[in-house]
Amino acid sequence: MINLRSLRTFVMTAEMGGLGRACTRLNLSQPAASRQIQALEAELGVALFEHIGRGLRLTSHGEDLLQRSRQLLTLSELLTEHAQALRSGQTGTLKVGATPQIIANLIAPFLPGQRRDHPGVDVQLIEGGDSQQRTRLERGEVHLTIMPLGGGGASYRLLAPVHALAVMLKTHPLARCKVIEVSELTKHPLLLLQRGYGSRAWFDAECESAQVKPPVLVESTTAHTLTELAAVGHGIAVVPSTSVVRDTLRAVPIVHRGTSVGRWVGVCWNPRRGLPSYAKLFVDELLAHAKRAFPGSALIKRAPPLPKPSEPAT
Question: Within 10 Å of residue 310's Cβ, how many Cβ atoms?
Answer without folding.
Answer: 6
